[in-house]
Amino acid sequence: MLHIIEHPLLAEELTKLREPSCPSPEFRHRVRRIASLMVPAVTANFHSTVVPCTTPLEITSGTHVTRRIILVPILRAGLGFLDGFLDLIPQASVAHIGLARNEQTLVAEPYYLKHPPKLSEDEIIILDPMLATGGSAIEAVRSLREVGACHLRFACLVASPEGVAALESAYPEIDIYAGSLDRGLSDQGYILPGLGDAGDRLFGTCA
């Protein structure tokens, strides 16, 4: 299911991100702020339990998030999306998945996966700023499912209808959280209107 996170502060940050004049240091800061603004919506239905809580005045009840939280940035652009989530979920563990496109098949293939053991009981958030064709997201989910992950969701800044449809078709049980659903894809597979190549803009490797 697709969830578009509508918030005026997020929308303003995204507007600034789209501008070509936004330099890499500013781009990184704005991506981080957007990620933090997304956290409450992305985590709103995490499983929790009631626990005792002792205040300076009395004993009351509180809440504890039951499952361990694991953030999984897709290398490399997902790294720029990670810190905003860690700002609000500092206790989260971080796994990493590296994907590269096979130039013959055009399919995303994993080249690196490092994660904590025993993922079956954990809340896992896959992070990638762009959901374009959906190929990387699908391969990330497949790879994590293969090593035992069960409770997964996907968070991105900007999504295309094509990418959403592809991920929903492959894994209809995965919730998708996006700051914006854009118009579509260009012939080269870029999101329109989009914001360009997020990885290049994050890390200053634009041509």
Descriptive notes:
By secondary structure, the chain is of the alpha/beta class. It has one domain: Rossmann fold (3-Layer(aba) Sandwich). Helices cover 34% and strands 32% of the residues. It is built from 6 helices and 13 strands. Strands 1, 4, 5, 6, 7, 8, 9, 10 and 11 form a 9-stranded mixed beta sheet that branches. A two-stranded antiparallel ribbon has the order 2-3. Strands 12-13 form a two-stranded antiparallel sheet. Strand 2 (48-54) and strand 3 form a beta hairpin. Helix 1 packs antiparallel against helix 2 and helix 2 crosses helix 3 (77-88). The relative contact order is 0.17.
Strand and helix map with partners:
Layout: E1 2-4, H1 8-18, H2 24-42, E2 48-54, E3 59-65, E4 69-75, H3 77-88, E5 93-94, E6 96-101, E7 108-114, E8 123-127, E9 130-131, H4 135-146, E10 151-159, H5 161-170, E11 175-181, E12 184-185, E13 191-192, H6 198-203
